[in-house]
Amino acid sequence: MSILTTAIGLAKKAKHALKDEIDKRTPVYLSPVRRIERVKTNHRVCAMTFDDGPMALPASPDHFDGKPLTLVLLETLERHNAKGTFDIVGDTSGNYPDSAGKHGSATWGGIAYDHYPDIDKDHFGGAVNCPQLVERILKGGHQITNHTYSHVLFGKKPLVYGGRKHMDSLDEVVYDLSRLDELLYNRYDYKIKFMRPPHYVDKISGGFSSYDACAVMDYQYLAASFDGAGWLPCKTYEEEVEATWRPIEAALAKDPDALCGQIIFQKDGYNMARRTPIADGLEKALEILDSYGYKVVTVEELMNYSPFEDLGADDPLFDAAFWLLDHDYTIVYRNNKLLLDAPLTRGELAMMIFGNSSVDRRVDIIKGNRRFRISDVDPTHPYSGAIDLAIENGGMRTVAGRFSPNSVLNAANFQAICRNIYGRTPDISGPITHRTAIEVLAKMEGIE
Ligand SMILES: [Zn+2]
Fold this sequence. Notes:
The chain is an alpha/beta fold.
């Protein structure tokens, strides 16, 4: 193992340890918006996502006769019959006044904002300025997702980007996302279905998060499970190129199925050292994937293998879960897992049945446009809207002003709620888990 691989490995390990620690402390909620990192499948399929493009400037260093970077990536993908997912921006030319930070640092492209492909070169990037590249992406059958119009942070990120400007409200975030969404729809007849927030900053002022923004836009949250290292500056360009494919090779040498269902993160733009190693590294990465029989598909196609991270198409419960998901039941947690053996709480049942239709209601409750007086549920709680609807339409009740969202549901409660909503009483007993709930709800809907 080279020193480089070891260094990347250590950096990633530290990052993962931190993420695991955060995950442990973060409660997970059922949500109409799921954070898609990978899906469960035994097939050798994976997806590759390219952030921050399109970019009309050539690769750096340029080994492609001045061709725009995005076109280099597209042609490389197509030589391998691979489909890419491009997380594009709209236009960063409004992000001024600004000046560049230190070359090679996180603020290389701007202290107050990001600029793509570079500061003072905004007109060479983004969907607004590169219509031919957008057209070319779509013509090749690749996918486009919303990486925001302006790439301005949704909220504060004090550690890395303390000096950064950020958006001030959910309305501002939704307006920004809508601008790119409408551009793609009006000009290319293309409906975007996923969003990836700039630098994965989720917290939005006023008690909202990226998940609310996605819910309002009817998007899913696109993350990634495998870092392609395209953002990472190394000592030399050769090391950077190696970093884009070596971890893929290492993972597959250890386990040929390691990348099944994974989403690989890459960049359609400069790294912090203003180089584009992916331009030369992608060919090799795809050769390796080819040699193991992997098909690189769009994220949308990947999710046809299974939309869930912990339930594959071969599981007996898959069809029922898939049907409920497809019919607006909120049966999946934000981390895209079903956690089938977890006990079902009252708040979760309200969310399962009313979550998808509660998006506007929740926004109204948080903004104070609608009265919400349940003493043990905060208006900003992810289930506030669904609980309000469940009380109104589902026969779920408060006792002395309390809803007890965290108390585990018993069979008699669940039967009463089914009677109210579906007019039938399911035959159940014992503790209710998420598995039981999915089976019962599918049965109530006539799906066996
Ligand atoms: Zn970005």
